[in-house]
Task: structure prediction
Amino acid sequence: MDATALSEVAVRIAREAAELARTVRDEAVTDGVGTKSTETDVVTMGDRAVERLVRERLAELRPGESVLGEEEGGDGALDGLRWVVDPIDGTVNYLYGFPFYAVSLAAQLDGRSVAGAVVEPVSGRVWSAAAGRGAFLDGRSLRVSGADRLDLALVGTGFAYDVRRRTAQARVVGDLLGQVRDIRRAGAASLDLCAVAAGWLDATYEVGLNRWDWAAGALVAEEAGATLRLPAAGSSDGLGDEMLVCATPGVADGLTAALRAADAGAV
Result:
């Protein structure tokens, strides 16, 4: 397995997909907007078109390899090499024209990300990583911040579509606000993870993410030096099965302890 070659494929396809997302947006948000789990969980024609493109390109460049996508699903088995795509991470932002959304594409081997790309259609920024080869933004090497005090840490998070869970998550934010510098919520988990890689955030956490939300961004952050806690069934650290925590090493333990004290994994 050549992680660098896989990363190059991810970047190539995600760039093309991001251009499609950008060019069809006006039509996508006026025709064919639907909902999924709740009325606030939207899907657009753009999401569907982008995922179809990604699948077509993967079939051409990596024939025979399985794909898991947000809109069309796929094989749930973790064995072997599988591509994981979020065609538009931040669909609500896409719907509103808020320019914080991205195409996320990762290659995973036995369930672990080994290559990935996160491409922003509006800015054109390209985040990429390959296992053991580092993380990059437009070709520039990334490194997490040197923050070592939780009370001075800028922390990202996200909220669920279900109103009851979102209300519980707000309680956790209320507990954390007195312990950190501030909290940011921008609406795209992949880009929150990339922001940690760049030092734009000192940490991010979220409950209830799907694999396509974090598969590429988590690798970018990890390759930039972040401490990573991924969702995993049977977790015994007090944060539950659905919690993702990504932080610069100097604040990782403090944030994890604060989240555990706030019972954040139980929301």
About this structure: The chain has eight helices and 14 strands. The first strand starts at residue 34 and ends at 35. Helices lie at 3-23, 25-28, 45-61, 91-96, 163-177, 189-198, 211-223, 249-261.
